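Q: Given only this backbone (605 positions), what sequence would you predict?
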């Protein structure tokens, strides 16, 4: 009997059907299955190649690191670029992070959560999304605090420094121009420890060299009009180990070394921030974020193209927030290659990511189980899920976590497959619970019913600030950018009125706001007492970790990111309205921090 394409797809863990977040049964087009099979190197018809995807089962006998004790800790989540200070160069940097560690530690916080710090494109600084990295193994040099580099002198600062600091939005191209110019001067002076630099370069090996070579070639290609991504370069440069790339490396060895040096600086300054957290008394310290994938034309896919699936992007199926689904434009690791090598490349990624972190958040954690994949030329609603070798991937994650004593948090939001949260619990991976999503038929789930093995928060970088949510700005934004229909917008706006009332009643019953005050709160800007009360309310959950967004502590209204928008909204560019030097003295910051410290007092070490 001839095998159907649906049967063949299912045999190699490509799902010929799936249930959407709302429960709808979805069958993707046959062409989707055909293209995914071909992308995985599997013929849609005819004999199957030798080998097959492994049986998908949970790992046995291994779990991620988890400290002993009750551990009900809290910390501050921040986008590093958004920090405004009187000394930085128009973008938050690692020195600002050290200062934030001192501020946060002084009020009882035990960690600082950050956006992904992955390398983007120095030759295209307008590519700003930290969740669309060029390479997850390396850091973004724009976070280097230039004035803290050995050999720096004040006269090296650009005349445009005041202009870089003043705007409400980060001017990434101007920041990159100013920083790289000063860093090149410092590189020529070589005021660093040559032995430490040599060790760093040796430890980084071929992957570090190829990343630095990519950045050097990328700068040349962008200047010549080919673009920063390698798919736009002349074909001779597509092969990172080919004659053209080798010749460039020999002829421009100094430039390649410069980019290695930038990685060395970034790594050392991030280490100083980690030490600052420890000195501030934080039990966890840096809580880093790991993106779900990398762009198709970046350093990672150029350095080793065999690991990525060609012609396929990661995304998300249609849901309540976006009726068209999401196309993240990221290249997925090949599940077939990962199965063949027992997830060794993923193990190397996790080892590197956990080395720097007291806690690590895995963005879209279901990616170790399955990813929603969209073939090129097709839209998000036409995509489907493909399974990954979860046993090998989780074993690799657990080993890295234990070796580096790193707590693992899995972002288990969206379409979570049945059984996945059970595997997370088995693996000591903390769940990620957001107040705005934790609901039942009659209102919000009471914080005391949240799971212990979780990190809880009000919202994230992909959601509105609390003030923006209260006002309904997020619904208006989704409608303005046609992410939802007018009818859906009216329904969501009507439902927001119910959500506000339910939340107020919860706060009243918890004794956190007096009823006569509740009756006076309208749908406009929420009073600071309400913002403090809702944080205190959620902090009472038994969950191990609680994260408060620095935007909410600073009283921000506008979101940092509107998913599924690119040029329509200034994503990943908005700075805080309150400078770092003044943050600890603002009443809202003090009151929220005081409430959290009272609900989650720091444990003695």
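A: Predicted residues:
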């Amino acid at each position: 009997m001839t095998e159907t394409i649906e049967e063949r797809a299912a045999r190699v863990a490509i799902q010929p059907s799936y249930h959407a977040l709302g429960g709808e049964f979805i069958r993707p087009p046959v062409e989707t299955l055909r293209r995914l099979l071909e992308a995985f190197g599997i013929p849609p018809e005819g004999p199957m190649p030798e080998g097959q995807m492994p049986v998908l089962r949970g790992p046995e006998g291994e779990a991620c690191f988890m400290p002993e004790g009750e551990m009900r800790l809290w910390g501050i989540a921040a986008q590093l670029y958004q920090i405004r200070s009187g000394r930085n160069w128009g973008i938050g940097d690692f020195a600002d992070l050290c200062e934030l560690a001192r501020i946060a530690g002084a009020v009882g916080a035990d960690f600082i959560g950050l956006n992904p710090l992955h390398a983007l494109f120095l030759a295209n600084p307008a590519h700003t999304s930290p969740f669309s990295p060029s390479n997850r193994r390396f850091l973004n040099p724009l976070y280097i605090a230039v004035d803290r580099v050995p050999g720096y002198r004040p006269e090296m600062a650009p005349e445009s420094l005041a202009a870089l600091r003043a705007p409400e939005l980060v001017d990434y191209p101007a920041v990159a121009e100013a920083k790289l110019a000063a860093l090149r001067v410092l590189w020529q002076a070589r005021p660093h420890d040559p032995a430490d630099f040599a060790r760093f370069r040796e430890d980084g090996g071929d992957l570090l060299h190829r990343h630095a070579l990519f950045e050097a070639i990328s700068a040349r290609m962008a200047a010549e009009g080919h673009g920063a991504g390698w798919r736009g370069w002349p074909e001779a440069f597509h092969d990172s180990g080919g004659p053209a790339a080798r010749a460039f490396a020999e002829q421009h060895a100094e430039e390649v070394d410069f980019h290695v040096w930038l990685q060395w600086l970034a790594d050392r300054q991030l280490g100083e921030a980690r030490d600052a957290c420890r000195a501030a008394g934080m039990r966890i310290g840096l809580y880093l974020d790991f993106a779900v994938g990398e762009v198709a034309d970046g350093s990672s896919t150029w350095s080793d193209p065999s690991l990525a699936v060609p012609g396929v992007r990661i995304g998300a199926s249609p849901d309540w927030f976006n009726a068209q689904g999401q196309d993240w434009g990221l290249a997925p690791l090949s599940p077939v290659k990962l199965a063949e090598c027992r997830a060794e490349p993923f193990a190397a990624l996790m080892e590197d990511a956990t080395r720097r972190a007291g806690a690590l958040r895995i963005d879209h954690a279901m990616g170790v189980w399955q990813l929603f994949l969209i073939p090129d030329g097709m839209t998000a609603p036409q995509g489907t899920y493909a399974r990954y070798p979860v046993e090998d991937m989780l074993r690799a994650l657990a080993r890295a976590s234990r070796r580096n004593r790193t707590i693992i948090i899995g972002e288990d939001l969206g379409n979570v497959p049945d059984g996945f949260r059970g595997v997370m619990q088995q693996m000591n991976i903390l769940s990620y619970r957001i107040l705005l999503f934790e609901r039942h038929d009659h209102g919000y789930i009471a914080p005391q019913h949240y799971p212990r093995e979780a990190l809880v928060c009000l919202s994230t970088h992909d959601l509105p600030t609390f003030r923006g949510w209260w006002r309904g700005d997020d619904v208006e934004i989704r409608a303005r950018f046609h992410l939802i229909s007018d009818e859906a917008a009216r329904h969501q706006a009507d439902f927001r009125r119910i959500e506000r009332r339910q939340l107020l009643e919860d706060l009243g019953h918890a004794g956190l706001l007096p009823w006569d005050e509740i009756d006076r709160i309208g749908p406009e800007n929420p009073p600071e007492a309400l913002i403090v009360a809702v944080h205190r309310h959620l902090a009472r959950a038994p969950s191990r970790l609680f994260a408060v967004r620095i935007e909410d502590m600073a009283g921000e209204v506008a979101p940092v990111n509107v998913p599924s928008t690119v040029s329509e909204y200034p994503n990943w560019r908005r700075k805080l309205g309150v400078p770092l030097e003044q943050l600890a003295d603002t009443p809202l910051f003090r009151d929220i921090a005081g409430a959290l410290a009272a609900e989650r007092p720091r444990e003695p070490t």
